[in-house]
Amino acid sequence: MVVLGTTSPSISCLPSSTQTDYKARRYCSFPQRPRPRPRASRFFCGSPFAPNAIHSPSLSVTNEALNVMISGAPASGKGTQCHLITNKYGLVHIAAGDLLRAEIATGSDNGKRAKQYMEKGQLVPDEIVVMMVKERLLKPDSKENGWLLDGYPRSLSQATALEALGFRPHIFLLLEVSEDVLVERVVGRRLDPVTGKIYHLKYSPPETQEIAARLTQRFDDTEEKAFINISLYETTIPSFH
Fold first, then answer.
1. What are phi and psi of 133, to 5 degrees?
2. Please, which pLDDT band fits residue 201 given cuts at 50, 70 and 90?
3. Of which family is this protein a member (predicted)?
4. pLDDT at 41 exceeding the cut of 90
5. CB atoms < 10 A from the CB of 169, how many?
6. Taking a C-beta distance cutoff of 8 angstroms, is the pair 67, 138 a contact?
7. Does residue 144 sit in the same domain as residue 220?
8. 151 shares its domain with 237
9. Which structural domain, as residue segments, surrounds residue 202?
10. Residues 18, 77 share a domain
11. Quick one: which of 40, 112, 139, 212 could link to 206 by a disulfide (CB 3.0–4.6 Å)?
């Protein structure tokens, strides 16, 4: 696990990996970078808004509400880590995609505006999503318990907009996994249509043959789609190198 310096408070909840070197990095520029070489999973921890990063393998929590942002490519394990973090620290889990769908379902002003773009097959503008995120972060439970912002921001403009509104995370978590592992996770993923539970043929196989027989594969859990999603992620996520 690679741990970067943070602004107080901070966390230390994720299990350590075989990666033991501690390197200071900065969240700064967004240049195009070459496709990363194959490597083991790595976990980076640091504040994207802190001007300097000082490495520390041991982090603790203060009494102040903890605010965290987490990012990772599709199948990098964000869902698992979000579950661990929210359970341990009682944070409010806020996923931009879920928030967008909820706003549309409730017919809010932001939801109606977003729906107009989505019905045309267009991306929802940053200013609409930022306002949705802002309103959620200002709710009492988020302010009192702290929040975990999942998969957002994904660009410099989004990060700048949030900072301009006064939202600065104490910690930014980046889950970095090799492309080969990401693709393997995607193509091996299966859904139990009865329970809704997600399995993996290699890493989390079904408990019984009965369950195995009814598992289905999502139409987009293919190698081709996985490469497309990974490439898209790499063009939008800021460079941490």
1. -65, -40
2. very high
3. Belongs to the adenylate kinase family.
4. no
5. 26
6. no
7. no
8. no
9. 180-241
10. yes
11. 212
